[in-house]
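Retro notes - structure team

What went well: the batch runner handled both jobs without manual restarts.
What didn't: labels got mixed up in the shared folder, which is why I'm recording both outputs here explicitly, each with its sequence directly above its C-alpha cells.

Job 1
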Amino acid sequence: MSAMCLGEWVERLREKAGGVPGLVDVGEGLAGLVLEPSSLRPYLHFRRGRYTRNLVYRDARLEVLLNCWDTGAVSPIHDHDGQECWFSVQAGAFLLENYPLESGGLGPGPARLGAPVVMGPVGLGHVDFRCPRAPIHRVTATRGPAISLHVYAGPVDRCLVFDARRQRCVARELRYHSVFGRPLAPPEALSPPPLP
C-alpha cells in the first residue's frame, strides 16, 4: 500500500482531472491508498452515533470529502445525484449494501429496490465505486472510529434517499460538518481517534 499526504494526493488528483469529465484513473489512484494519518487530522470531526461529512476540496470538476464514522453509524440508502463516486477506506471497517433499482427512483416519489448485494466487512485500502448505472447503496461502520475518503466526479449537493419498506424516495440537500478543517457547528463530538 502506498502512503502520501492528503494535500499532495488532492493536488495530483486535480492535475489528473484537468477538465476531463469522469476523472479518468481515480479508482487506480485510490487502490491500496493509505493517506498519511497526520495529514488527515484537520478534517477529523466525529459525532457520537453518527457520521460526519468533512469537505477537503471542491471545484466544478470534483469534490473530495473525509467522512468520519462512529462504530455502528449508518448512512441512509442513497444515490449520488448522477455522479460517479469513489469510496476508499482509510481506517476502521465497513459493511456495504449495494441496491439495484427495480422501478422508479429517478426522482422523488415511488421507488422499488431489489435485495442488496452485501460486501464486507471491508477495511483499510478497500475501494468502492458507484456510477450512474449502479448508484444506490448504504454504508455501515462496523468497526470504528472509521474514516472514509470520498471523491465525486462533480460536486454533489443533493441526493435521493430511499425507504425500501415504503418503496419511496425523497430528495435531500446535503450539508458539511466541516469545511477545509473548520467545523460549521460546535462539536458535541468525540475526540479524534488515535490513527494507525
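Job 2
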Amino acid sequence: MLPTERAIRTTPEGLLWEPSERRVRGVKGETTVVDSRHPVLVWEPQLPVPQYAFPREEVRTDLLRPARNPAVGTHTGTRIFYDLHAEGAVVENAAWTFPAADLAGHIAFAWFLRPDSGLDHWYEEEEEVFVHPRDPHKRVDALLSGRQVLVEIAGTTVAETVRPVLLFETSLPTRYYFPREDVRLDLFAPTDHGTACPYKGTAEYWSWHEEDGVPPNVLWSYPDPLPAVAAVKGLLAFYNEAVDITVDGERLERPHTPFSEGLRVR
C-alpha cells in the first residue's frame, strides 16, 4: 500500500475512515470474536476518538444476531445492529454496520464509552488496548526536563521541582509530572476514583484536603504506566485547568479543555 493510499477518507455521511495495518483481535471469554489483519479506523462526527470496523469475513458472524432492541440513533446513520451471543451470554447492540458505501462489508464493535462492550479484551498485535483504539494521528511524549515548575492551590505552594517530566499529548495542555518528594502529598487525601487511558494506562487520584473551590481528584499518578510513557511511573500531576502553575517564573493561564466541564466544583 502506497503512503498516499493511507490518507483519511470522508464519506457523504460525515464519517472519516482510514485503513490500519495493525492486526486487531477481540476476545469474549475464551472465544475470539474478531481476528482482523485489515481493520479500518472510523471517526464519527460526535465522537472524539476512533473506532474499529472489520471486514465481515474476519468476524465470527455466526455469533451475531439481528438486535432485538436496536439502539437507533447511537451511531452515524447506522443501518443494522447486532446482538452478540457468546460464552453463554447475550450482549445487546454489541456490533453494527455503517451506511457508507466505502464501509460496506464491515462490522464495527462497541467499545468507547461502553464498559460492557461485549468483548472482554482487545489487542493490537500482542498488546492489550484499553478504553478505545489509539489514534495514529495523536502523539504522547514523556520527556525529562530541567524546568522549574511550581504549583499553588488557594495561595499555598503544594509542589515545586526542577526535575519534572513533561508529558506532551496532542490537543491537550502540557502536563507536569513531579517526583513524589517534591509534592506536599500530606495536603491531599487518596480517593477511590480511577481512570484508564489507552496511551498511558490506569491512574489513581487524590483530592485537596480542603474545599477552597477546588474540584475533587485534582491530583493523579500512573503507578504502572504503559511502556511508551514509562518516565511518568509513580510521579504526580495536577490538572492545569484547576490549579495555578508557574514554569520558569511565568504563571500559566488555566486552559479550557475537554476535561474542564468535569472539573467543575461539585
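One thing worth noting from job 2: The first strand starts at residue 9 and ends at 10.
We'll revisit the folder naming next retro.
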